[in-house]
Amino acid sequence: MAHLSSEKFNVAWFKLAEFVGRKEKERALTLYRLLVHSLPDGAFAAQLEGDLLLAFKDDKAIEAYKRSAQLYEDAGRYMEAALIYEQLVSLMPQSCEIFQRMLNVYKIVAHEFKIVRCAATLIRLLLQKDQAHKAQQIIASLTASGTISAQGSAALEHELVKHSLQS
After folding, report:
1. Please, which of 39, 65, 67, 155 could form a disulfide with 46 given CB 3.0 to 4.6 Å?
2. Which of 138, 134, 117 is nearest to 126 (CA)?
3. What residues contact 70, with CB distance under 8 A and at least 6 apart?
4. CATH class of 1-92
5. How many Å apart are CA 40 and CA 62, to the nearest integer?
């Protein structure tokens, strides 16, 4: 009997993919709601919901992805959270909030290259919004905590200088 149950489970996933392929949003979401009860991982379930909603170009995908990233963070699964934030950045490239969350995750996993890359983008966004003081606070915090090297700090300072020359 367990084999039959597993077989039906697998068929349901293929049906879900079929509904998405045929752009049948309501049927796909209905089947997703049934399947989600079999998923033991809430973060993955929220990520899957985001993927489905994104496939249908539904703006609610962003909230599902945010929920997924937060659940991954809460579970200490920081690399999965970072990947979700990367997805969110592609959807919302001007969001200081998402870049700040992603920066915090990269600080936890101590990935200096990604910290500097993320911080540089966040600093550019803040400078575009005339929030130079916040940009300076980010650089000071990363430098004082030893999160980034002198070279990383110099790269971020360069963003400030470049902006002041353009202004």
Report:
1. 67
2. 134
3. 81
4. mainly alpha
5. 22
- Six-digit token string for 84: 């979700």
DSSP notation for 127-165: HHTT-HHHHHHHHHHHHHTT-S-HHHHHHHHHHHHHHHH
Alpha-carbon distance values, 2 to 5, 6, 35 (Å): 5, 6, 16
Query: At a CB cut-off of 8 Å and minimum separation 6, what does 64 contact?
Result: 46, 47, 49, 50, 53
For the stretch 27-83, pLDDT in tens is: 999 999 998 888 889 999 999 999 999 999 999 999 999 999 999 999 999 999 999
Which residue shows structure tokens 């703006």? 59
